[in-house]
Every structure is written in C-alpha cells, then in structure tokens.
Amino acid sequence: MVDIEKKLCDILENIIDNDLDDNENINNLKSIINEYPYFQSIYIILAKKLHKINSPSKQKALELASLYSTDRLYLKQIINSQTSQKVAKDKKILKENDISIPEKITDDSVFNDNMITESLAKIMVQQDKIELAIKIYNRLILKFPQKKAYFVRILNKLKTKL
Q1: Domain range for 60
Q2: Same domain, 66 and 123
Q3: Which DSSP string corresponds to 8-76?
Q4: Is 0.70 topped by the overall pTM?
Q5: How many domains is the chain partitioned into structurally?
Q6: Is residue 92 included in any domain, yes or no?
Q7: Strand, helix or coil at 140?
Q8: What percentage of residues in the chain have a pLDDT greater than 70?
C-alpha cells in the first residue's frame, strides 16, 4: 500500500510542479483514474490540464469531473482560473501593508444578529471582556426569549465579576 501512495504522491508532485510535459502529465492522470476511479480531485486536475492545452477530449473530461464533483461552481472556478492571477493575488494578500487588524473591539455594533451567539459571549468572558459579554447576553435574551431565565442567571454572575 505504501508503494502505491508513494507513486501517487510522486505523480501529483510532478504535475503540480510542472516537471513533466503535458502529455506525460495527462497519461499519469489517466493511470491514476484507472487505479482510483472515485478520486474526485484527479478528474478535476485532468479536466484543467486538458482545458489548458485545448485538447479535443476536454469536454468529456469536464463532464466526468462534473459528475464526480460535489460543487460545480467551484469546479467552474478551478477550470476557468488562471494560475498566474492566483499567485499574484496571493502575494498581494500576504503583504503586511494590506492587512488591517483592529486593535480592540470596543463597540458591540460590529456584531450583527447572525454573529451573536452564546459561544461568542463565552469567548468574551474568557477574554475578560465582561461588559461586551453582558451586552451580548442582553441581545441573546431578545433573540431567544425562551432561554431568558438561563441568560439572566449568567448575567447575574457576570455582574458580580464587574
């Protein structure tokens, strides 16, 4: 079993690193498909390679990839994406200048109702942001009136910590 896994890893590394020519890559992918017919990713990689070289069999490969794919929108994005654009975008994201991280969350308005959960309130308590946790629990009372008694008990405990 280890031999097969090693062979598979070697083939995939060569394909990803583009160490082999396209025809050899395609033949390797087809051999993997013959050995592992339910390996979804291989169908996608094969369809991408055939699309890239504009092969006449790209349509059949795309149809097979879509049959084995769980998300066809993702498949379409992969097939139509340009690798160079993705690399450029990733480099841009990694630049420190482009990342802005807020120093401190002070206003509970940054949380919309979909984000307000009991888990978030517990996290705020663990981070000693008791006042923010109290505000979240008060909003949870409005969101889940059936749990009001439970939230009021927690609020009373938190108010003693202030």
Answers
A1: 2-85
A2: no
A3: HHHHHHHHHHT-S-HHHHHHHHHHHHHH-TT-HHHHHHHHHHHHHTT-TTHHHHHHHHHHH-S-HHHHH
A4: no
A5: 2
A6: no
A7: helix
A8: 70
Backbone angles phi, psi at 53, to 5 degrees: -95, 5
Q: DSSP character for 162?
A: -
Question: Which single residue is written with the structure tokens 């975008």?
Answer: 89
7 and 58 belong to one structural domain: yes
Distances (CA, A) of 119 to 115, 125, 129, 140: 10, 10, 14, 11
Question: DSSP of 82-120, one letter per residue?
Answer: -HHHHHHHHHHHH-GGG----S----GGGS-TTT--HHH
108 pLDDT band, cuts 50/70/90, is very low
- Segment 99-105 shows an average pLDDT of 48
Residue bearing tokens 């060569």: 14
Say yes or no: 9 and 63 in one domain: yes
Distance CA 10, CA 5 (A): 9
